[in-house]
Amino acid sequence: MMKIKIVIFILLLGLQVNAQNRRSNPIVSHMFTADPSAHVWEDGRLYVYPSTDNAPPKGYKTMDGYHVFSTDDMITWKDHGEILHSNQVNWGRKEGGFMWAPDAAYKNGTYYYYFPHPTGTDFRKTWRIGIATSNKPASDFKVQGYIKGLETYIDPCVFIDDDGQAYLYIAGHNECFAIKLKEDMTEIDGELIKQTGLDGLREGPFVFKRNEMYYMIYPDDFPKFNKMRYAMSKSPLGPWENNEVFLNSTDVITTHGSVVEYKNQWYLFYHNGNLSGGIGPNRSICFDPIYFNEDGTINMVKQTLGVELPTFHKDVNFNEMIGTLEAGNYNHADLEKKGFTSNEISSIEIPKGYMVEGFAKDNFTGKSWKFEEDRIDLEDIEANDIITSIKISKYKVENLVNNPSFELATQGQIKHWYNRNPKPFSRYKDDKGKGYYALKYEGNKNPRPLVQKVALKPNTNYEISIKLKAALGTEGKVIFDTNGSFDENCKFELDAKSKPDEWVLYKAEFNSGNTTKLELRCLVSDNFKGVGYWDDVVLKVKS
Ligand code: FUB
Fold it and tell me: Whole-prediction pTM value?
């Protein structure tokens, strides 16, 4: 008897996913994704069905082409590719786009995919809830039409109760309705029932059940940035009680998510704007564990971001995590002991305060690359599957600027540096700069500046510096300033003719006074014609 108990205990341990030893947020970094709906299906994998955001951002109207992601360990994620596009929706608006927050359900061997999409140009008046089906969870979906009898609602959620009854939840105009679905999962059964007791509901309902209690989570309409609330009920149709915020605003306007239990741990999936630097329609999906109290209430979710230690992946898209390494020197044999097979590193995530040096040969010899805080796709710098020995050091963080050397790009954008049309700016490989990349602008007009917002402490002395360069033959000025006219000291202008093709370092000191938000801006003068570059932005408290 005793033996049986021990075996069961060990098996359970094996099934548990260690919430700490997991993929960092955001979980998808090769494209922008939002509105994640997570489900565990019969094959034992966890599948996430999000919507897709486009870069450069053109608002929510261009959202299109749903992907599916799955995992069996919360570390290694697989992108199953695009499963549906608006051009496959024969009843959809001719302009396409508007493929908003979806959900998926499984019944009797069929996977049902529910997606909001308008039939007409005037999307506000023509929303429908589309249905596609497949006998696989992540491919071969065929559009079957839309659910008749429901109009102008978005954000479907389908919840199947233990007795097999399916309920559809939809939202719109700050209201949420529920309705039973017939056995075929494609037709409604009865009348829409308004869901009550949902304080400040905006959209995005998601329903799940735990210990005989039903939970609805939903974004509230807190002005500016939405927060996620949950409510509880003894019935899947409400009334709902106990609304509480359990996820604070992320760094984008919307919030939207789902809750799922996987291998004995409950998780909230949601989105933030970390990958794009906070651009509203360029969101990225994340997850964090959630914890319930004895009375069933949910504790505030701790939003985690990035990694604590340098983290190495087999895949250029920051998937297939190999492991993390602390500060130290690791030759080939040391790496093998840590479970790193030879030459298999394809991407690295480095938290602030760490410096990673990778060498092409063993014992810290051969070609080498130095990286500071950020996510580095090694294919971009032709170092994929080459790194054989590694040195990692720790240093004190002082620079307040994110992506200060423009090393990282996401879908053609420079991470953490943005404007509504970032296209004229690009990342430029500059082996002479401190990093591998610099910011580049090529053109003959003054585009909107590329900016990063930084928080300042009031009445504090700061130092700021940047390197500017203008290509030979360029006319006009390459400029870096702060809030436009915050402090003339911090306005740096390189006259292109003065030092062609040379990096010029600019430095200044200033006192923040009452200013607590500083906008760092890269721009050029009105008469500009040619190529300008920016690199190594440093903003720190004056020592
Ligand atoms: O992603 C498009 C829309 O934004 C969703 O349908 C809403 O829930 C909000 O996240």
Answer: 0.88
